[in-house]
Amino acid sequence: MLIFPNAKINIGLNVIERRADGYHNLETVFYPIAIKDALEIVVSDKLSFQSTGLEIPGRMEDNLCIKGYHLLKKEFDLPPVKIHLHKHIPIGAGLGGGSADAAFFITLLNQNFDLGLSADQMMSYARQLGADCAFFIQNKPVFAFDRGDEFEPIRLDLSDYKIVLVTPPVHISTSEAYGGVKPAPVKDSLMELIYRPVGEWKNYIKNDFEASIFKNHPIIRGVKAALYEAGALYASMSGSGASVFGIFKEMPDLRELEKTNQVFY
Asked: At what angle do helices 119-127 and 97-112 cross, to 10 degrees?
């Protein structure tokens, strides 16, 4: 059975406070986009994982799909499966690709083996694999808060706009991103700001990670500037980077950016 996990962008990201458990409370808006991986499972005589496309770092045992299998195997009589993932979503780019793969894998197991799990139950499993994994179960725009794993549905439709994603040749680790940010309460929540016209977002909606990451990686700051120069209504780094997206009314000419970056239209 084959399924196509998609990426997401973060529209705004406020790091509000450090939690006692070492994580951070934050608020952001998750919005699904059409850049996709391909994920297939086939019943086999043993559990295995293989990937093609972009190279996935780390051991097979640490892959979130494998962890998701073992998580559900504790409660369901799952047969061994052969997992094949074709990786297309850039890795370490703030797009949630690994989380999407894990969430879609849970959905795939639920469908393929008639586990009878509800969306809420699948989200509960997904939360154990990563803060944003649960988002991809329902895969609809949400206001995310707490660790980024609690959601409030929002009415946000950007289908009349062109969303362009640019991924420079830079990898930003989570530790680098959070090491450069100073948590602070917000005066105006994204829950309200997101309903302002898209053309006003640049005056109100920010990503707290940008200040330090732009300082350490000027190439990312340059991508954002280039998107505004090309006519973006709003441009921002997604999550903890390094990808930057631009929202346009018309499709822009980004041939110069294409020379040194991955550009997804």
From this structure: 140
Show me where the domains of the chain are located.
Answer: 2-153, 162-264
104, two tokens: 């879609």
What's 165-177 look like in SS3?
Answer: EEECCCCCCHHHH
What CATH number labels 2-153?
3.30.230.10
pLDDT digits (tens, 9 = 90+) for 130-187: 889 999 999 999 999 998 889 999 999 999 999 999 999 988 888 888 888 889 999 9
Q: Convert the pLDDT of each residue in 75-103 to its tens digit.
A: 999 999 999 999 999 988 889 999 999 99
CA dihedral 170, 172, 173, 178 (to 10 degrees): 170
Long-range contacts of 230-234 (CB under 8 A, 24+ apart): 230/254, 232/164, 233/161, 233/198, 233/199, 233/201, 233/202, 234/11, 234/198, 234/199, 234/201, 234/202, 234/205
CATH architecture for residues 162-264: 2-Layer Sandwich (3.30)
Positions annotated as catalytic residues are 8, 132
What pTM, to 2 d.p., does this model score? 0.94
